[in-house]
Amino acid sequence: MAESVSKYPYRAPKKYPNKDLHGRVRFGYISYKDFKRFQKFWVDLFGWDMFELPEAAGGKEPGSDTPSLLVATGPSYETWEGVVPGHMNFMAHYAEGELEPVNYMMEIHMDEPVKCTADKVVQYGGAVVGEIPEEKEGWSTSLTVSDPDGNVLGLWRCPSSRTWDEAEAGYDKD
Amino acid sequence: MKYIYTCFKCGFPFAVDESECPERCPSCSAPKSQYLVEPWNGSIEKRRIHVDPPEPDPNWDKYDVSYHHPKHFPAKTRHGRVRRFVMEYSDPQKTKDFYTEVFDWDIVPVECDQDKDRPEMFCATGPGFANWEPKFPSFGYGLLKPQESDDTGAYPRFVVEVDNIDELLPKIEAYGGKVLKGKYEFDGKYYAVLEDSEGNPFYVWQTPEDVTFDEPESQNYYHWDRKPQ
């Protein structure tokens, strides 16, 4: 695999100077069939830490045998956002049917309707999966799309409560 | 009437009308009895009640998934961190245009000896340092690979960094996983392809010997106001 980071590409990445996290891949989604087995594999062998999502976010009652989880794969703070750059945390959930391929959640513009991004996804060969949700002022909104090769992407529009003091909300100010 | 509720267990503040107040904390699931309440004053930021968040508990049961501060990850190791996402493509230009135009990614071919027409491509999805490591926490960079490049047929979707592949591989089967491709070298770095206990395929990448652990991505803690900029 050509996953070398010793020879860096020939230039620095472009600057992201705006107060906007559009396009950042923020979390991975991984599914499991047997929670205890899944937990033991990743906790014992790789040191992951797991927290059961509240019912409003994960859809499962507290103490469920098939919980929805936030997973810290590296150093994170009390909100379970990463606290050190360079790694991604995951969300994990029970697969009702077949195991689902790992996919990713990206943030999209906070200051425009999700439909604008959905339209662009279609324009460039992707597709919207399911319905475009109704949006409410002050609430987060999520949408599922796929890229031209069928890779599934979760899109998330953060609510306006973001203060930009959050560690994960940094951007290029220089 | 609208109030600001602050959870005494996790410190999470939220503002809603009392008629819509949830029975459990949206952040940690603590019951409503744990909320501290004050009148809405126009802004959550101007609230008077602040609760210190919990600290990592060194005695926490690692299998207990009830709300807690994430564990304190040890220093001088990046073992277990998900370092890159991986997705496959069929048409390189179409895929590059999609992610560049729709999501503002910055995409370059990985600098190595490879097929120039169907390269493996490295993706910056947000601000980064000159060495193409993310500059801020809680998001990832990744790789777009040509579909034919995966010789395991398993379609691994992420890269986990590990301390030592030789020490890891003998443990995988005992935990229900599989070694799909044993340790191999590419461009001076070591990798393997594994499957977890559920069947999720992934790469492991051994921490290179030239890592000093002074790098931002090697740290195990950043103070809240010590931002890398």
Automatic annotation (TrEMBL), chain A:
InterPro entries recorded: Glyas_Bleomycin-R_OHBP_Dase, Glyoxalase_6
Pfam families: Glyoxalase_6 (PF18029)
Transmembrane portions of the chain: none
Annotated ranges, domain Glyoxalase-like: 33-152
Protein known as: Glyoxalase-like domain-containing protein
Originating species: Candidatus Egerieicola faecale
